[in-house]
Design brief:
elongated; six-stranded mixed beta sheet; alpha/beta
C-alpha cells in the first residue's frame, strides 16, 4: 500500500501500512544487519564461556600452552564480534537514513500533489514536524528491529550455554524470559498512548512559532504582538505538558525495565552461586554463569529500547498516514478529457452560479449568497473584482487556482469546465498570482523567467511591472542574486518582481490578487498602465481594491456576501457608498 502511495500519494493509508512499507523497502539491508548483529551478540555471549574454559583448563591446570591457545581463541572471538558489529551498524544505519529520506519524500509528495488537501487543517510548522521528526521516528525501526532480533539471539545463546553448565540455570533463562517480555509490553502502553499527543502538541507549537515569526512585522504594525505572544505561550505550555507526561511515562517504563532485569539477573546469580557451593559446577563454570548473567543485562535492556521505539514509531506512523490519506481538495480530471489544449483558445473565463459558502458554516440565505456569482473575463481591457469581505476574495481565488471546489456552480475556460483538465494543466491556463507570492533563491532574472516559456525575454514584463527599476538599483542588475523568499529585498521590490514573473508566464488567463499593495502611489500608477498594455489581447482579472488598478479596468464587479452587488466601471461604482468605503479604506 505504501509503495503505491509513493507513485500516487492520494489514497487510504494506515499507520500499519507506513510501518510495513518502511521496513519492507529495506528488508535486504535489515536482514543483513540482523544477521551481523546476531553474530556480534553470539560472540559477546561466548566471552564469559571462554573465560570459564580458560580458568578450568589452563589456569587451574597451570598449562601455558593451553592458556596461549585459549587466549588466541578469545582474541579471535573479539575480532569477529567487532567486525560483525561494525558491518551490521553500517547496514542498519544506511537503512535508517534512506527510510527517513523516503518517508520525507512521501510526505512532501502528498503536500505538493496538484490536487492538494494534504496541508488542510495543519500549520506549516506542524507539517515540518511530521516530515522531519515523525519520519525519523519511524525510520529508526530499521535500526531497532535488527538490534531486537540480535537480543533474542543473545538470550538464546546464553540459555543454551547455561543449560550445558547447569540445567536449572538454563531453564531459568528459557522460562523466565517470556514473562519478562510480556511485562515489558505491558508497561510500554502508557508511553505509546502519550507519544502521539506529545508529537502533536510539539508540532502545533512549532507551527505557531513559524507563523508568528513569518508575520512578525505585520503583527507589530497592527499592535497584535502581545496577543500573538500569549497565543504562543499557551501553545508552548501545552507542548511542554505533553512532553513532560511522555517523558514521565518513558522514565517509568525504563525504570520498571531496569528493576525487573536486575531482579531477574540476581536470581540467576543466586542459583549459580548455590550450584557452585554444592559442587555441581566448577569455579570456571561459576565465572561463566555470572559473566553470562551480567552479559544478559544488555539484551534485556535492548528489549525495552526496541519496545519504546516501536511505541513511538506507531504514534508517528499514524500521523504520517493522516497526511498521506488526507482527501484531495479538488476533484480529478473528468473521464472524457477534452482534446483541446487550454492554452490554445482565446482564454474566455466564465463563472456561472458560483457560490463561495464556507461548508463549515452552511449557506447564508439571508444575504442571498445562494444566487451565486456570474462573471465573464475575456481578452481586452482587464476585468476587476472588488470583494467587500476579503474571505470571499480568498475563496474565489482558491476556486480559480484549483485549490478548492466551489460550493455550487461551475467555472469554464473557453466553454470547457475548468475541472475537465488535470489541476496542474488548469493552473497553467488560469494563472492565479497571489499578492504574497514568494521568490526563490537565485538571480532576479531567474526568478522572472521561472514560469515563462523557453527563450522568453523578460525585459518587457519587468518594464510593465516596474521591476526594471528594482534591477537598476541592484549591484549586478537583473543578475543580482536574491535570497530565499526575497528577504534581501524590500516588500515593494519583491512584489514587483513577483508580478513580472506572473506577466512573463504569458498565461491565457491571468488572475492578479492585490499586486500593488506594497508600492507607492506613483509606482502603482505606472504598474497599472504597464499591466493594461502588457496584457492587451489577453484575459486578465484583477482582484483588488486599488483605485489606480480599478480605474484601468474595463468592468468592475462588486461582490458583497458572496454575490454580485453591482457591476460597472470604477467611476460609476464610486457612487455606491459601500463600494466607495471598500476601495478608499
Amino acid at each position: 500500500m505504501i509503495g503505491s502511495a509513493q507513485q500516487s500519494p492520494l489514497g487510504a493509508v494506515s499507520g500499519k501500512d507506513v510501518l510495513r512499507g518502511s521496513l519492507r523497502a529495506f528488508r535486504g539491508r535489515i536482514s543483513v544487519a540482523a544477521a551481523l548483529f546476531c553474530s556480534h551478540q553470539a560472540g559477546e555471549a561466548l566471552v564469559p564461556l571462554l573465560v570459564g574454559v580458560i580458568i578450568d583448563r589452563a589456569v587451574a591446570t597451570g598449562d601455558p600452552v593451553a592458556l596461549a591457545g585459549w587466549l588466541a581463541v578469545l582474541a579471535l572471538d573479539f575480532l569477529l564480534l567487532s567486525f560483525s558489529y561494525r558491518l551490521g551498524a553500517r547496514q542498519a544505519w544506511h537503512a535508517d537514513a534512506w527510510a527517513d529520506a523516503r518517508l520525507r519524500r512521501l510526505v512532501a509528495g502528498r503536500l505538493l500533489h496538484p490536487r492538494g488537501g494534504g496541508e488542510s487543517g495543519r500549520l506549516p510548522g506542524e507539517l515540518t514536524g511530521i516530515a522531519v521528526s515523525d519520519s525519523k521516528r519511524v525510520a529508526e525501526l530499521n535500526t531497532a528491529l535488527p538490534l531486537g532480533l540480535a537480543a533474542i539471539a543473545a538470550v538464546t545463546v546464553a540459555a543454551v550455554a547455561l543449560l550445558t553448565i547447569d540445567l536449572s540455570l538454563g531453564l531459568l533463562i528459557l522460562l523466565g524470559t517470556p514473562p519478562l517480555l510480556w511485562l515489558v509490553q505491558l508497561v510500554v502502553r502508557p508511553l505509546e498512548r502519550r507519544s502521539g499527543p506529545e508529537q502533536e502538541r510539539a508540532a502545533r507549537a512549532a507551527g505557531t512559532a513559524a507563523d508568528l515569526v513569518s508575520g512578525l512585522r505585520v503583527l507589530t504594525g497592527i499592535g497584535a504582538r502581545p496577543a500573538a505572544v500569549r497565543r504562543y505561550r499557551g501553545s508552548s505550555r501545552d507542548a511542554l505538558a505533553a512532553t513532560l507526561r511522555a517523558t514521565r511515562a518513558e522514565a517509568g517504563f525504563l525504570g520498571a525495565v531496569q528493576l525487573t532485569n536486575g531482579l531477574f539477573l540476581a536470581v540467576i546469580a543466586l542459583v549459580g552461586g548455590l550450584a557452585a557451593l554444592n559442587g555441581s559446577i566448577t569455579v570456571g563454570q561459576l565465572v561463566s554463569a555470572v559473566g553470562l548473567a551480567q552479559f544478559l543485562v544488555g539484551p534485556l535492556q535492548m528489549f525495552g529500547f526496541v519496545s519504546a521505539r516501536w511505541a513511538q514509531a506507531r504514534a508517528s506512523a499514524a500521523r504520517i498516514a493522516a497526511v498521506l490519506s488526507a482527501p484531495a481538495a479538488v476533484g480529478d480530471a473528468a473521464a472524457g478529457l477534452p482534446d483541446a489544449n487550454p492554452d490554445a483558445g482565446p482564454g474566455v473565463l466564465s463563472l456561472r452560479g458560483v457560490r463561495l459558502d464556507d461548508p463549515a458554516q452552511g449557506s447564508n440565505t439571508d444575504t442571498g449568497s445562494t444566487a451565486g456569482i456570474d462573471l465573464d473575463v475575456g481578452p481586452g481591457a482587464p476585468a476587476a473584482l472588488v470583494a467587500a469581505d476579503p474571505e470571499d476574495a480568498a475563496r474565489l481565488l482558491g476556486c480559480l487556482a484549483r485549490e478548492a471546489e466551489p460550493a455550487a456552480g461551475r467555472i469554464t475556460l473557453d466553454g470547457v469546465p475548468l475541472d475537465a483538465w488535470p489541476a496542474e494543466v488548469a493552473r497553467g491556463a488560469v494563472l492565479v498570482a497571489a499578492h504574497d507570492a514568494h521568490l526563490f533563491a537565485g538571480s532576479l532574472h531567474e526568478n522572472v523567467v521561472a514560469g515563462a516559456p523557453a527563450g522568453t525575454d523578460p525585459r518587457r514584463a519587468m518594464t510593465a511591472a516596474a521591476a526594471d527599476q528594482v534591477a537598476a538599483t541592484l549591484p549586478a542588475g537583473a543578475d543580482t542574486d536574491v535570497a530565499a523568499r526575497g528577504r534581501s529585498l524590500s516588500g515593494g521590490q519583491r512584489q514587483r518582481i513577483a508580478l513580472a514573473r506572473a506577466l512573463a508566464a504569458d498565461a491565457p488567463v491571468l488572475v492578479l490578487h492585490d499586486p500593488t499593495t506594497a508600492v507607492d502611489a506613483v509606482t502603482e500608477s505606472r504598474v497599472a498602465e504597464g499591466l493594461a498594455a502588457h496584457r492587451a489581447g489577453r484575459s486578465t482579472l484583477l482582484v483588488t481594491t486599488s483605485p489606480a488598478l480599478l480605474a484601468r479596468a474595463g468592468t468592475v464587479t462588486f461582490l458583497v456576501h458572496g454575490r454580485v452587488r453591482a457591476r460597472g466601471t470604477h467611476a460609476e461604482l464610486m457612487a455606491d457608498p459601500d463600494y466607495r468605503a471598500v476601495v478608499t479604506a
